[in-house]
Amino acid sequence: MDIQLTADSTCDLGKYGQERDVKIMPLSVILGADAYLDGVNIVPQDIFDHVEKTGQLPKTAAPSIGDYAEFFKKFVDEGKTVIHFNISSKSSSSHDYAAEAAKEFGGKVIVIDTKALSSGQGLLVMKAYDLLQAGMCAKDIAQTVNRLRPLVNTSFIPDRLDYLYKGGRCSRMAMYGANILKIHPLIEMEDGQLVAGTKYRGSMQKCISSYIDDLAVKYPAYDDTRCFITHSSADRELVEFAEAKVKEKFAFKEICETVAGSVITGHCGRNTLGVLFISK
Predict the structure, then answer these.
(1) pTM, entire model
(2) CATH for 3-149, options being 3.30.499.10, 3.40.50.150, 3.60.21.10, 3.40.50.10170
(3) Where in the chain does DSSP place strands (E)?
(4) What's the average model confidence in pLDDT over 250-277?
(5) Closest by Cα among 36, 16, 6, 19 to 262
(6) Residue 259's pLDDT is what?
(7) pLDDT value for 176
(8) For residues 18 and 20, what is the distance between their CA atoms, to the nearest angstrom?
(9) pLDDT at residue 107 above 80?
(10) Location of each CATH 3.30.1180.10 domain in the chain
(11) By the 8 A CB rule, do 273 and 229 touch?
């Protein structure tokens, strides 16, 4: 095959990426004085332990331009054209660095700003694989994926706002109020950046039920190929409830469950859950 699909580690594809031979470029996760590679030598539990012990969120760092150039060179030297997918450029410098590195390869590396994160990004990678299997060329794959970007629903419901508060994404008062009143705000991507939406109230199961109901109303037309239920080490009962609710409200041919990697987990905390898919 003369096209190689690659992505940075925030795509959270797990086994689905491995099955499709998607090569992953890890971001760095920094705990105190120690740096780790997302998906390589750190797991979400390490994040939870660090935050509990220190009260501080991990820091993250994008691969350098040089790291990306070295990563791409392996595939170009094999005679392949690379299509690389990055987390939204409004969330990380990973895309800008990858795009700069790609300039060395004379059009043999195409870098896509997914304007998404986690499996919202992963959905575009999976769609690119579908198109590749259908015989589409690299240029047309990239054009098709770029056209689909605004149609990707990337959203999730956090259990608690502690991590969002520590990351500067909500106020202390909002965090305490949400925890006391059992408010779980919808967090979604709009034009490549995270914004708060509907404020659901009650247990996580009740909020997830309302969230999926609202998704079904908002997106009556959707690509039924697949959806992702992506979570940050959520309670098993909650994941199973979400899957049953998705089956009730939608008709996806495949429901993929993935656990968020360390970069995404470090921003949202445990028990966050999202249902992500491509609309029409």
Answers:
(1) 0.92
(2) 3.40.50.10170
(3) 3-8, 23-25, 28-31, 34-37, 59-61, 81-86, 109-113, 152-153, 155-156, 183-190, 193-201, 227-231, 255-259, 273-278
(4) 92
(5) 36
(6) 94
(7) 45
(8) 5
(9) yes
(10) 152-278
(11) yes
pLDDT digits (tens, 9 = 90+) for 78-88: 999 999 999 99
Provide, rounded to the nearest whole percent, the portion of the chain with pLDDT above 90: 74
Report which of 79, 81, 90, 155 is spatially closest to residue 118, judged by C-alpha positions.
Answer: 155
Pairwise CA distance, residues 56 & 66, whole Å: 30
* Residue 177 in this model has a pLDDT that exceeds 80: no
| Cα-based torsion angle of the residue sequence 75, 78, 80, 84 in order, rounded to the nearest 10 degrees | 0
What CATH architecture is 152-278?
2-Layer Sandwich (3.30)
Q: What share of the chain is helix, strand, coil (3-state, %, to 5)?
A: 45, 25, 30
* Separation CA 214–CA 249 (nearest Å): 10
Report yes or no: 273 and 236 within 8 Å, Cβ to Cβ.
no
